[in-house]
Design goal:
This protein is of the alpha+beta class and about 120 residues long. The protein has a single domain, classed as Aspartate Aminotransferase, domain 1 (Alpha-Beta Complex), CATH 3.90.1150.30. Helix content is about 35%, strand content about 30%. A six-stranded antiparallel β-sheet has the order 1-2-3-4-6-5, covered by helices on one side. The longest helix has 17 residues. The protein is globular and about 40 Å long. The model has no long low-confidence stretch (mean pLDDT about 95).
């Protein structure tokens, strides 16, 4: 189900991936900051949690109520979660991943950004 997500994240510059056993989640990081988490909701449904611009989160939550929710176990303002078994289009999921990467990359120091772009 949406098997392309990890590959899509890994294609972005400077992205690393790790598995966090305590959360039973795969994390994607840029500059050592998490921007994507693939895990499960409390009922076992597969879940994608991403760090987004708050305004973008609000638009998505209004457009896909129940399918995109405030971030599960994260800051509800900056994070949103997408149920991977929902009917939300892949294009929307890609837009969420792109926004998550760009939003997180922008928080890195200029030095770190330069190092990543030079890779």
């Amino acid at each position: 189900m949406r098997d392309w997500i990890s590959d899509y994240c890994q294609q972005k510059q400077g992205v690393t991936q790790e598995f966090k056993m305590a959360w039973n989640a795969t994390l994607h990081l840029v500059g050592k900051k998490i921007f994507v988490m693939l895990g499960e909701y409390k009922d076992g449904r597969p879940l994608l949690t991403v760090k987004l611009e708050p305004a973008f989160s609000e638009i998505l939550r209004a457009q896909f109520p129940g399918d995109i929710i405030p971030g599960y176990y994260t800051d509800k303002n900056h994070w949103s979660s997408l149920f991977l078994d929902s009917a939300v289009p892949d294009d929307t999921a890609r837009a969420m991943l792109d926004n998550a990467y760009e939003t997180t990359f922008a928080t890195l120091t200029k030095k770190m950004q330069s190092q990543i772009l030079a890779q």
